[in-house]
Amino acid sequence: MERPEPLPDLDWTPDRAAEFGQSALELWTEYLRRLPAMPVTHPHTPAQTRAAVLAGRDVPDKPLGDDELLDHLRTVVFEHGAQTGHGGFMAFITGAGTVPGAPAALLAAGINQNLGGWPLGPAATEIENHVLAWFAARLGLPAQSSGAFVTGGATANLMALAVARDALAGWDVRRDGVSAGPPLAIYASDDVHETVDRAADLLGLGTAAVRRIATDDRFRLRPDAVAAAIERDLADGVRPLAVVATAGTTELGAIDPLEALADVAREHGCWFHVDAAYGGPAAMVDELRPAFAGIERADSITCDPHKWLNMPISASLVLFRDPSRHVAAFTLQPDYTKLDAEVESDMMLRYQWTPQFTRPFDALPVWVSLLAQGWDASARRIRHDVELAGWLHHLVGEHDELEALADPELSIVCFRYVPPGPHDAAYLDDLNERILYAVQRAGRVYPSNAVVAGRYAIRACLISYRTEAEHVEALVDDVVAHGRRLHAEG
Fold first, then answer.
1. Considering just the CA atoms, what is the radius of gyration of the chain in Å?
2. Which of 363, 322, 299, 280 is nearest to 143 (CA)?
3. Are 477 and 398 in contact (CB under 8 A)?
């Protein structure tokens, strides 16, 4: 057999990499320059978008030239992208992505370390551990807490409830499965995120295991109702497993009474999980912390830095009070992963702590953003977002044709257009749905919707560091203008 010759086709030289990278950097900086004047959304249909970005474009046998490839990327970015980084984007809970986080994400992809095991990402593992410990401390968990970066709040909630199941079921669920014991139940508000139901499904408990408990007049989970539901389940032979509190609901930003719910969970031997995917960063701000009293008593916490801290997606994390329970839910030991015991004694092997083996360096954009921006700037911005929500709520209250549907707890405002005169509920729901779509199509601002106490609402979530008073004022103006037009049209 002849000795194979080198084949360097995929191993671009540093100069070639720099040339291509510089072109991509210029495209990104052009995007940042143009973003304020761009519409928040494009008018194209899914079919038009497919035709523009994919039609006639298969994976080529020969490489595209840089000019052709960059023209393709320009279409993706400028003509058919959702401009979630725009100051007028107020839908859902999606951050803009920090500026320093973008090149950090490039670097993380460039070095391509695998955080499944310490030897594959030594510095990366230590940085993730450090960032997790910083978040845990800011949220009031003890110094020995553990955690993990994951893809999003759905995975974080799934991991938290998996640890709860394995720790408190009362039998070896990992070995024998959920059918080996009595049914288990999870208690949460009727506004808890649907990913809790998905977690119950994936964990074999079934979605019916999630007891959706009524909320109070501030849309917060009622501790007395949770206690009553637990007592009913005990009488029926169901084992109470976990109380899930939400620190900032998706629709309204409501904060459940965490202290009282922690008391209920402790009294009944339940796991206490706090879904702070949205509100977690606010709980880290000194002036806002009192609204989250009790979060430090959680057994586990979900927090998404890619939401209110605007970190590049994905940057979600789950934290655990008890590392021994955390690792027990995921640990395994394949033969091929064994290391020298003396070397291994001081290292974190991340594949033992999550459902993943291969894991990206998601902590780096968060770490670099915090270093480059400092915490004070983030805290000021969160306080500013709360002030903007208050300003929007004020504008709604001052307008004769607008009606607030709830007092904002954090930075989410829900309201609707109500034209003069009497109107039935069904008409107002239909009118406001049409108003929402008209505002979205116009492209100046992009709110979403919610249903508040059975009423259709226009919902503004203010978490982007590019959103200012001018954007919420534009929202009010657009809602009123489209509301008057659509109402007149009948």
1. 25
2. 322
3. no
Length of the chain: 490
Helix spans in 65-152 (H): 66-74, 101-111, 122-138
Pick from 114, 143, 151, 467: which is nearest to 304 by CA?
151
Cα–Cα distance for residue pair 443/319, rounded to 1 Å: 38
pLDDT (tens digit per residue) in 114-159: 998 888 999 999 999 999 999 999 999 999 999 999 999 999 999 9
Between CA 246 and CA 258 the distance in angstroms is 8
Q: In whole angstroms, give the CA distance from residue 465 to residue 452.
A: 27
Dihedral sign for Cα 430, 433, 438, 444, please: positive
DSSP codes of every residue in 187-212: EEETTS-THHHHHHHHTTS-GGGEEE
Give the single-character DSSP code of 60: P
- In this predicted model, what pLDDT tens digit does every residue of 198-255 receive, in sequence order? 999 999 999 999 999 999 999 999 999 999 999 999 999 999 999 999 999 999 999 9
